[in-house]
Amino acid sequence: MLLQMDSITKKYGEFSANRGIDFSLRAGEVHAIVGENGAGKTTLMRILYGMEQPTSGTIRLNGKEVSFASPLDAIQSGIGMVHQHFMLFPSFTIAENIVIGNEPGAGAVFDRKQAVKTVEELCEKFGMKVDPQAIVSSTAPGVQQRVEILKVLYQGADIIILDEPTGVLTPLEVQELLEAIKQLSKQGKSFILISHKLNEVLDVADRITVLRDGAVTGVVDKHATDAHEISRLMVGRELLELDRKPITPGDKVLEVTDLSLRGTKGKPVLDAVSLSVRAGEIVGVAGISGNGQSELLQLISGLAQPDGGRIAVAGKDVTGKAPRDIRESGLAHIPEDRYVWGANRTATVMDTGLMGHHRRLQKSGLLKLKDIRALVSGWVQKFSIKTGSLETSTQYLSGGNLQKLIVARELEQGTPFLIAAEPTRGVDIGAMETIHGELLKRREEGTGILLVSSELTEILKLSDRVLVMYEGRIAGELSAKEATEEKLGLLMAGGTLQ
Amino acid sequence: MEQLFDLALINSALRVLTPILLAALGGALCSRVGLFNVGLEGFMLLGAFSAVVGNYYFGNVFYAILFAIAIVSIFSLIFAYLSINLRANVIVVGIAMNALAAGLTTFSLRAIFDVKGAFYDNTMVGLPKWNIPVIEDIPVIGPILAGLTPLVYLSFLIAGLMWYYFYRTKSGFRFLAAGENPLAAKSVGIRVARYQYGAVLASGVLCALAGAQLSLGQVTMFTEGMTAGRGFIALVATMLGQSGPLGVTAASLLFGFMDALSIRFQGLALPTHFTQMLPYVVTILAMFFFKDKSFQKDALKQGSSSR
C-alpha cells in the first residue's frame, strides 16, 4: 500500500466530521471518494493534505507513519492537491503558474526562459499539452485544470488529490481530463478523486470508497458495482424512481419569436431564436455553455434587452419590460449562477428567502416578519436545508443548500411559467432527487418549465421536448422519445442529424 | 511662449515630481499586495516633519533622513498591523493615519519648537544640491540636471530597481503573486502577510524620503500641512500607472510637469489660485482619459465567479 489512513476521526466540538475512516491507496490506482455534501470527503482530504489535524487516527505513507502540519509538508511528501476552485494567478503565464514556489534560476533571479523550457519538458513527459507562454485568464477552464495538474506534478507529487475536478468543465473537457488521469495512472501516479458524478467515477476509478455522515459505508471495486449500488450506499436508502406522468400540454406560457441579440464581435449571440413552452410541459435546452443559453435566459427574464424579436409570458407581451413586470406577468426564475443572480451573500437566510416575495409579505410598507419566518422555516424543513438558523449569513451555506433555498423560493411563487437554469448544479444526489421531484410535481400542476442544463442526464430525465442550442441558434429539437445522449451530443457539437 | 517652456521648466519639474514619484512607488507596492494605501499623504507629512526635527537635533542631513525613515516606518507598522492583522478596512485606516499625521505634526510643532504654522531655523542644512562636473557643462542636459538633490536621482533609481525586482527576481514574482491571488499564493507556501508587511514598510520608507525632499529639498523648513495633497496626487499616479514602476514614473512625470507649469504661470500675472488648480485639473482629466479598463474587467470577473 502506498498510502494507508487508519481509523481517522475528526471532531469539531460535539460534531464528528469523520468517524473512524479507513482509506487506502495503491500505487498507480485511481481511488474515488464519493458521498453527499457534508459526508466528510473534504475533511478527510484536508487532513491528508495537512490543512487539518485529525483528532485521532494515523496516516502511513509507504508503511511509515507521517503527520503533516501544513500543506507544505504534504507537498514535500509527494502529495498534491487540485482544489475545487482553481488556485491560479490569472494574469500570469501558464509557465509562471506552474513553477511558482520553486522557480528556476540562479540565486534571487527568476529565469523565465528556463521555466518555459521546464514546463515544455513536463508537458512532453506526461503527455499533457499546454502553451507555457499563454496568459492563464485567456485560457479555457479545461486548460486551467491541466495547469493545476501540471503544477502538482511539477511539485513532484506521486499522489494527486482532485477535488470535484469536473464542476466547471464542458463535456469534451471532462473526457480529456478523464483520459489524462488514466494516462498518468499508467505512468505510476496515484489519484484520489472526490466527486459526486457517478458516471465519471465509474469511468475512471479503480476502487470507490463511499462515505455517509462521516463514516465509510462501502469500499467497492469498479467491476463489481454499478451506479445504483453506489447511490444506495451514498444516500442510505433506495432512490425513488421518478415517473413522468403523461400530460397533455395546455396553452403557451412562454412564446419567444425571432429573438436576436448582437454580439461584440459581429457574430450574433442569439440569432432569430423562436421557441415556446406550454403549460404542463418541461422543455429542456441543451448545449455547451457559451452558445447563447445564458443570454436567452437573461432576455426572457428582463435582465438584458434584446435587439429584435418578441417575448410573451403567459400570453402577455413582455418585450422590453423590467424584470419586476415580467415576474408579475407570471415568471419565476431559478437562476444559473446562484451567487450572482440568486442570492445576496451577506444577507441572512431569511432575507435571501424573502427576495421576490417582499411585495406580497408586507403591510403598509412594513414586512410581516412572522409570516416570512414561518414560510422560510417551512422550506428549510421541507428541503432539509442545512443552516445554523434563519439568521445565518447566506455565504455560510454550502452551494447545495443555498441552491435548495433558491429553488424553494422560486417554486413558492406559484407562477404559470418557471425558468430552471442549472437547478442542480453542485448539489448532491439526495437534494437532486428532491429538486427533480418538485419540478415534476409542478409540471403535473400545469406549470410550464424551461430547463437549461449542462447535464445531459438531467435534461433527458425531465424533459418532454429537448432543444439544442449551438452558436446562438436552435440547432435541433427532439421529443423525449427521440432524444439520446449521442444525438444531443452531435447537435451540441454543431453536427446535424440525418 | 518662450518664457513658458524652457529647460529650467524641466529642471523644476524634476524637483517637484520627486516627492510624488517616491510616494507613488510606495503606493504601487502596497496596491500590488491588495492594500490600497490612502495614508501616503500622512506618511509623507510625518516624513517631512521628522526630517526637520532630525535635522535640527543632529545637524546632519543624512541622520535627519535616517531619523525620518525610522519614525515613518514605525508609523507605517501601525497601518500594517491594523489592516493586515486586525483586518480593519484599509481605506478607513489610511484616512485615520492621515488625520493622525496632520494632528501629530501640528501638535509636535508646538511641543518641540514652540511655534505655530511653520518652523524655520537658519542653522539647519538642506539637502545637498549636486552640480555634477562635466555634465553641468553639457548643453541641454546640463541645465536640466543643474542643482538637483540626490533624492531626485534616487527616486528614479528606485523606480528602476522596483521594475527589476518585480519582473526579474523570484522574490518579486512571489510578491506579485501574493497580491494577485492570496489564497493560491498561500497554497504554494508563500507567506502573504510577510510580503504585505514588507510593502507597507517600504512605502513608509519611500514616503519618508518624499517628505524629506519636501522639507529639506527646495526649502529648509516645515509648514503645517505642507504636503498639500501630494500624497493623493501620488495615489492617482499609482492608479494611472496601474501600479507598475514604469507607468507610475510616467504618471509622476506628467504631474510634476504640470506642477512646474503652474508655478511658471504664476509669473505670467495669472491669478495664483487659478494656476494652482492646474495639477489637480489634470489629475481629474487623467482619471477620465486613462481610466483603467482592466479594473472594470476584474470587477466583472469577480461578480460572475461562482463563489
Structural class of chain A: alpha/beta
Question: Biggest interface, which chains?
Answer: A-B, 27 and 24 residues
Q: Which range best describes the helical content of chain A: under 10%, 10-25%, 25-40%, 40-55%, 55-70% or over 70%?
A: 25-40%
CATH level-3 fold name of chain B: ABC transporter involved in vitamin B12 uptake, BtuC
Structural class of chain B: mainly alpha
Under the CATH scheme, the architecture of the largest domain in chain A is: 3-Layer(aba) Sandwich
CATH class value of chain B: Mainly Alpha
Question: How would the global form of chain A be characterised?
Answer: globular
| CATH architecture descriptor name of chain B | Orthogonal Bundle
Number of helices of chain A: 17
Mean pLDDT across the residues of chain A is 89
> Could you name the ranges of chain A where pLDDT drops below 50 across 5 or more consecutive residues?
none
Strand order of the largest sheet of chain A: 6-7-8-3-9-10
Shape of chain B: globular
The CATH topology label of the largest domain in chain A is: Rossmann fold
What do we call the CATH homologous superfamily of the largest domain in chain A?
Answer: P-loop containing nucleotide triphosphate hydrolases
Task: Specify the oligomeric state.
Answer: heterodimer
Largest sheet of chain B: 2 strands, antiparallel
Helix content of chain B: over 70%
Number of domains of chain B: 1
